[in-house]
Amino acid sequence: MHREEEQMGHERRVLAVAVITAGLTLGAPALALAESHFTGSDAQAGPDGASLSYVQSVVDDEGNVSYERVTLHAGPDGAWKETTASSTG
């Protein structure tokens, strides 16, 4: 029975990362309008849960600058989201 519970936990973590990644990907078309941008991401899954971090920095045609970093985590004790954002202009 323990092996089945371990497999189910792994499947839940993989599903959580897939759902989180899909949600962040839907925001990507907004970057197409920007003059210059940087994006990066990191995803991990293990016995304690799954996490995804995403960072983007954008400078638009008018010189406005924005920065956002989002970290999402799902584990055996629940899920959380942390966001840091800054902008000028």
What would your notes on this structure say?
By secondary structure, this protein is an alpha+beta fold. The chain has one domain (2-88). Helices cover 27% and strands 49% of the residues. The protein contains 1 helix and 4 strands, in the order H-E-E-E-E. It has a 4-stranded antiparallel sheet with strand order 1-2-3-4, with helices on one face. The relative contact order is 0.17.
Q: What is the count of distinct domains?
A: 1
How is the main sheet built? Answer: 4 strands, antiparallel
Outline: elongated
**Approximate helicity band:** 25-40%
Separation, N- and C-terminal Cα atoms: 57 Å
Supply Rg.
Answer: 16 Å
Q: Please report the number of helical segments.
A: 1
- Sequence stretches where pLDDT stays below 50 over 5 or more residues: none
Structural class: alpha+beta
Strand order within the widest sheet? 1-2-3-4
- Tell me the fraction of residues in β-strands, as a range: over 45%
Number of E-state strands: 4
Secondary-structure element pattern, one letter each? HEEEE
**Average pLDDT value?**
78
State the main characteristics:
89 residues; alpha+beta; four-stranded antiparallel sheet
Give a concise summary.
The chain is of the alpha+beta class and 89 residues long. Helix content is 27%, strand content 49%. The chain has one domain (2-88).
